[in-house]
């Protein structure tokens, strides 16, 4: 067995290697879990940030709790991009609704390659 090409990593090299792997495996985002709309057919406040430290593109799709229909879709948000406002895909009556948002993470080089998913519980308010 030829081991002449095997080299030992220093503690510092190993630490850097492991940190790089850990950084690439982390998903970062800032998502305001309380979406607010003056009326269902008007632009409302959503607040989603994909920070520069993230390695992936993100997409947020929101549904009312217990329902399958997507009522909000952010589209792809790349690192260093944010969304402050958005529109609903449903005509909701005045009220406060419990929501479930699915945050999907995509490779930047190929936005059709999904690398992870997170569920976030929140609420949506329609004021009029």
Strand content: over 45%
Q: So how many helices?
A: 1
Percentage of helical residues? Answer: 10-25%
Class computed from helices, strands and strand pairing: mainly beta
What pattern of helices and strands is seen along the backbone?
HEEEEEEEE
User: Under the CATH scheme, which architecture would be assigned?
Assistant: Sandwich
Query: Within the CATH hierarchy, at the fold level, what is the topology?
Result: Immunoglobulin-like
User: Which runs of at least 5 residues are low in confidence (pLDDT < 50)?
Assistant: none
* Number of domain modules: 1
**Number of separate strands:** 8
Query: Main beta sheet, described?
Result: 5 strands, mixed
Descriptive account of the structure:
With 128 residues, the protein is mainly beta. The protein has a single domain, classed as Immunoglobulin-like (Sandwich), CATH 2.60.40.2550. The chain contains 1 helix and 8 strands. It has one helix spanning 11-25; strands spanning 30-31, 34-37, 44-50, 56-64, 70-73, 81-86, 95-107, 114-126. Strands 2-8-7-4-5 form a 5-stranded mixed beta sheet, with no helix packed on it. The protein has a 3-stranded antiparallel beta sheet with strand order 1-3-6, with no helix packed on it. The termini are far apart.
């Amino acid at each position: 067995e030829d081991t002449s090409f095997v080299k030992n990593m220093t503690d510092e090299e190993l630490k850097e290697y492991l940190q790089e792997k850990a950084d690439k495996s982390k998903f970062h985002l800032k998502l305001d879990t309380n979406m607010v709309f003056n009326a269902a057919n008007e632009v409302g406040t959503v607040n989603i940030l994909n920070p520069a430290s993230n390695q992936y593109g993100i997409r947020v799709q929101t549904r009312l709790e217990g329902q399958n229909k997507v009522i909000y879709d952010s589209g792809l948000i790349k690192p260093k991009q944010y969304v402050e406002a958005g529109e609903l895909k449903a005509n909701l009556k005045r009220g406060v609704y419990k929501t479930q948002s699915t945050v999907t993470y995509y490779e930047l080089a190929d936005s059709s390659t999904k690398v992870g998913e997170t569920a976030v519980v929140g609420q949506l308010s329609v004021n009029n």
